[in-house]
Design a protein that fits this description.
With 687 residues, this protein is mainly alpha-helical. The chain contains 36 helices and no strands. α6 packs antiparallel against α7 (142-159) and α19 crosses α20 (385-394).
């Protein structure tokens, strides 16, 4: 068999690499015969799954073959290469040690959660095994030093995991630091800084900040093998001078790198100081300031809503930051989005300052998307409730409902919209109650059953039964627990109907009303007449105590409760009609009529609710002989030769249409000819 090489290991374009990992010279093809040669050639052709299949067939494979197997697995996105590679590092190659570290990372980040107990390794033991092996080597290549630095960082990460125990991680870090101090001293100070930065429980501890400042002052940034930690520390401390030093060295060291401009822009966004972009050459600085992420920061700082909107539109529908980072300046082997040795990631920037962005933007879809992308999941701030309301209208969801229940805008949302989301939630395969248990009283107090019924009626029978069963579990439809279909409209009780029954009134008054209602069935006819007369006298003597505007507003709210079942609300035209209705019939009579009308099963489906109530109110007035005579008197003066039978027919036709006789009287006062009367009477509509 010809001399083996590890094919195509760790080229700079590979996600496993860092800048100091040297590329290996590889042959275009491995000569010879056998499973390993065939597998090697598949690997050279980037046919990683085919290579894995053949490497697995090699009997008694040596360490070199196992390294290539593990590498092929990693490049085919198989996260369990550690079990294929094994733990014996005695014959490991330099490239193989990189593969070993990558295997440990994959296992720690992904496979560990899915591995059975018998397949599990102690993660810190895996790292310690690699560090112990590196400590025995008489010399460390540049690649070995990077692997050791990577193992050190991974041990820091495990130190925060109490299941592995911080003592074992401390031991591994100590061994790694001892080896680096002896064989690669340039790494010692920067990794010591990483260790301080990784102690997240002490993030806001003033003593810890002093230690970070001291470590940063001792670090020779210009000679540091990686630059990201020094800037990360400077950003933590808001040390602009050190930040400029780190960025200036970055620009010197990577002056021709394609990601330099984006990386400096990323740093300026993270530091929230766009003047750091001036560390770039002038032409690159201009390009950096044209990035939408940078434009957004500038717009926020300037309070310019127009530019903020423009930047967000350029960012795109998902408002995701796209600034890539110069990975050669940190331990890119980890492929992590953020860490103490990585370059700061600005992708969380919008989340940090989204309140300022919301305040800058006008109402509309863009502002709603900013809220949805940044504010959801945060503890709800009452000052954001208006944005929450806007976002819920734009994209109703159960996630937003959790904030809605405790907000100040709950009463401003159409019940139909809330019910739609609740019903959709009940239809999910694993339906989760869209409110906390302690919120249930407030949720049920909304009386969503009518709106929920409208949603249930849209479903097929099987889905309807499924959703209804879940809704009952959540406390809805409490009086229909033994049925397989939702109650009809006639069983829905609106808030205003409950108020008519006395709910919400001061307790003494409610008790008196309840006592009166209980006693009335036992009264004699004469007593009942006097009771009704007394109640009527009270109503008459207090009718002027409430303004027309307040009365109309109460009736409007009642109408909107019924309209909410169809996802509707009164517009300005409807409100004007309600005002006229209230002025004509009075709020008490209208509320009672609306309550009776809404009990009919077909009521909610009727789109002309105001006209329907008007027709009923007109019909209840009867013939209205005195007012009809008054109308005839007016018309007799204005229209010559008017016949009484003709007027009776006109009045009857109008009342059938729901037109009130008072409307006819008002019209009669304005006409001067038969043509005007005919045209006017045809144009009359119910209040």
């Amino acid at each position: 068999m010809p001399e083996q090489v590890t094919p195509k290991i760790l080229s700079l374009s590979d996600p496993l690499t860092m800048d100091t990992f040297a590329e290996l010279e590889v042959q275009a093809r491995v000569a010879g015969e056998g499973l390993e040669v065939e597998a090697d050639n598949y690997l050279l052709l980037d046919k990683f799954e085919d290579a894995v299949a053949l490497y697995l067939q090699i009997p008694n494979a040596d360490r070199n073959a196992l390294e290539k197997l593990a590498y092929s697995m990693q490049l085919s996105n198989n996260k369990d290469s550690i079990h294929a590679l094994g733990l014996d590092l005695a014959d490991a190659t330099g490239a193989g040690r990189v593969v070993q570290l990558r295997a440990i990372i994959d296992y720690s980040n992904s496979y560990y959660r899915n591995a059975s107990e018998t397949q599990r390794f102690d993660r810190i033991d895996l790292i310690k095994g690699l560090v112990d092996h590196l400590a025995t080597l008489p010399e460390l290549t540049r690649r070995d030093v990077n692997v050791l630095a990577g193992a050190f960082h991974l041990a820091l990460d495990r130190r925060r995991d109490t299941s592995d125990g911080s003592a074992a991680a401390d031991e591994v870090c100590g061994i790694a630091m001892q080896v680096l101090r002896a064989k690669a001293p340039a790494w010692v100070d920067v990794l010591a800084l990483c260790e301080l930065l990784s102690d997240y429980p002490k993030y806001h501890d003033p003593v810890q900040k002093e230690k970070i400042a001291d470590a940063l002052s001792k670090l020779n940034i210009e000679r540091s093998p990686i630059l990201a930690p020094s800037f990360n520390a400077a950003a933590r401390l808001k040390d602009k001078k050190s930040a400029i030093r780190a960025l200036s060295e970055l620009c010197r060291r990577y002056k021709d790198h394609e990601d330099l401009t984006s990386t400096v822009a990323s740093a300026a966004v993270e530091f929230d100081d766009l003047s750091l972009i001036d560390t770039l050459p002038e032409d690159l600085g201009a390009a950096a300031r044209a990035f939408p992420e940078v434009m957004l920061v500038a717009a926020i700082n300037e309070g310019n809503g127009e530019n903020a909107a423009l930047a967000l539109q350029i960012l795109g529908k998902h408002l995701s930051f796209n600034l890539v980072q110069l990975r050669e300046s940190y331990l890119s082997i980890f492929n992590l989005p953020y860490g103490p040795d990585t370059w700061p990631d600005p992708r969380h920037f919008l989340d940090m300052r989204f309140k300022e962005v919301l305040e800058l933007l006008p109402p509309g879809e863009l502002r709603a998307r900013v809220y949805l992308s940044s504010a959801v999941g945060y503890d709800q701030d009452p000052s954001l409730d208006a944005y929450l309301l806007e976002a819920f209208h734009f994209e109703p969801s159960s996630m937003l409902l959790y904030n809605i229940w405790g907000s100040t805008v709950l009463d401003q949302l159409p019940k139909a919209l809330i019910a739609k989301v609740v019903c959709e939630n009940a239809l999910e395969d694993e339906a989760v109650q869209p409110f906390e248990d302690e919120q249930q009283p407030r949720v049920l107090a909304l009386n969503l059953e009518g709106c929920l019924q409208v949603e249930l009626d849209k479903l097929e029978a099987v889905s309807q039964s499924q959703a209804l069963a879940i809704l009952r579990e959540w406390g809805f439809f409490p009086n229909a627990a033994n049925t397989t279909s939702p109650p009809r409209t006639s069983s829905v009780t609106f808030d205003f109907q409950r108020r008519i029954e006395g709910e919400g009134l001061p307790e003494p008054i409610r008790m008196h009303l309840a006592g009166l209602a209980a006693a009335m069935p036992d009264l004699s006819p004469a007593d009942l007449i006097y009771v009704l007369a007394s109640v009527g006298r009270l109503a008459q003597s207090n009718k002027d105590a409430v303004s027309l505007a307040a009365s109309a507003n109460t009736v409007e709210l009642a109408y909107n409760q019924v309209l909410a079942l169809a996802g509707q609300v009164l517009n300005e035209f409807g409100k004007d009609k309600v005002l006229k209705q209230t002025q004509r019939y009075g709020a008490p009579a209208l509320l009672q009529e609306l309550a009776d009308w809404a009990k009919k099963p077909e009521a909610i489906a009727d789109g002309e609710i105001i006209e329907q109530v008007s027709k009923r109110m007109v019909a209840k007035q009867g013939t209205l002989i005195p007012r009809r005579a008054y109308l005839a008197g007016i018309l007799n003066k204005r229209l010559p030769n008017m016949k009484g039978a003709w007027l009776d027919r006109q009045v009857a036709d109008c009342m059938k249409r729901g037109v009130d006789i008072e409307q006819m009287i008002e019209l009669a006062k304005t006409v001067t000819s038969w043509g005007e009367w005919e045209q006017g009477i045809d144009s009359l509509r119910p209040y």
